[in-house]
Amino acid sequence: MKRLNLILSLTFLSIGFHSFAQTNKETTVKIVADKNYTFVANSALPMSNNDVNRVLAMMPGGQGGSSINLTGSQYDVKVTKDSIVAYLPYFGRSFSAPMDPTQGGIKFTSKKFSYTESKNKKGTYIIQIDTKDVTRENYRFTINISTNGYASLTASSMNKQPIIFNGYLDEPKKQD
Question: How far is Cα 129 from Cα 145, in angstroms, rounded to an integer?
């Protein structure tokens, strides 16, 4: 647990040096309270780093490393009061594979889920989402959200090793 907290702390620090769009404090408070936001993933930190490092080091120009850059790749999780829509990649060890190779990653829409929200002393939101209706496997998402909209999402399930995504919150797009 101490290692995970250290990884999360270091991750929040490393995100601060990138210039990504994020929400201000008032917007963050509003969209979290409304349960209407999008988590946009900028990087992934697989928990099975040794396996992923070997693969990344073999790629042309690859250097290995524990963080995988996802900037500009449109990976996100949309949260509303009545649904969770996830479109995330997966890097790490999976204990079962889908029959259809296009169904890899963490991709689902859930309408039946539990959602708990708490806040720590520093003002960081801690959101826990447990899906209950995903056909292949249910997920637990733990999202840590800073007051300025930076966030980390830990995805875990029974069939895959956990993976951490770093990114930011975005307001839902206005419907015209």
Answer: 14
Among 89, 101, 78, which residue's Cα sits nearest to residue 46? 89
**Position 4, amino acid:** L
CATH number (domain holding residue 13): 2.40.128.410
Reported pTM: 0.79
Q: Is 18 helix (H, G, I), strand (E, B) or coil?
A: coil
The answer to whether residue 66 sits within a structural domain is no
117-173 pLDDT, tens per residue?
999 999 999 999 999 998 778 999 999 999 899 999 999 999 889 999 999 999 887
Amino acid found at 173: K
Q: How confident is the model at residue 8 (pLDDT cuts 50, 70, 90)?
A: very low
Residue closest to 64 by CA, chosen among 73, 54, 72: 54
Provide the token pair at 102. Answer: 């296009």
DSSP state of 176: -
Residue 123: inside a domain: yes
Contact 77, 89 (CB under 8 A): no
